Amino acid sequence: MSIALIHTEPHTEPAPADPVTRAVREANRTVLLRAREVALLAPEQAVVLFGLPRPFVEWLASADLAELDPLLEAPVVMFSCRVPASALANLKNSSRHGRLHAALATVTAGSRRGN
Q: Under DSSP, is residue 82 helix (H, G, I), strand (E, B) or coil?
């Protein structure tokens, strides 16, 4: 009679993500799932409201949740800040929001440069 020894690693749970990674994944999950809802209801609005390319919106509307998993778990924020010009103009005219206007102006200028 022979006895085979099998070496197994002790079962360990995956390490919990740090708070920053959890926040990033939660942001991606929230935006992608809301974008998917809009893509299912009104694809053209999803393109405009979420700033997504039409082919991605079409894929998003047809994808099941398992197909979304790699995107939902992405370790970096997948969406950039966009500020409508009208909102920026309203802030410019308000003395209370001078610092905010300046900060948002750098966001919109950066997005125009492709940053």
A: coil
What are the pLDDT tens digits along the chain (115 aa)?
444 444 445 544 455 678 999 999 999 999 999 999 999 999 999 999 999 999 999 999 999 989 999 898 888 888 887 777 777 677 666 666 667 767 777 765 545 444 3
Query: Which amino acid is located at 59 in the chain?
Result: W
Picking from 111, 91, 110, 112, the residue whose alpha carbon sits closest to that of residue 102 is 91
CA 5 to chain centroid: 47
Domain boundaries, the chain: 17-79, 81-115
Fold of 17-79: Flagellar transcriptional activator fold (1.10.4000)
pTM for the complete prediction?
0.67
Tell me the CB-side half-sphere exposure of residue 41, using CA atoms within 13 A: 9
> In angstroms, rounded to a whole number, what is the distance separating the alpha carbons of residues 37 and 68?
13
Backbone phi, then psi, for 114, in 5-degree steps? 90, 15
CA distance linking residue 48 with residue 18, whole number of Å: 33
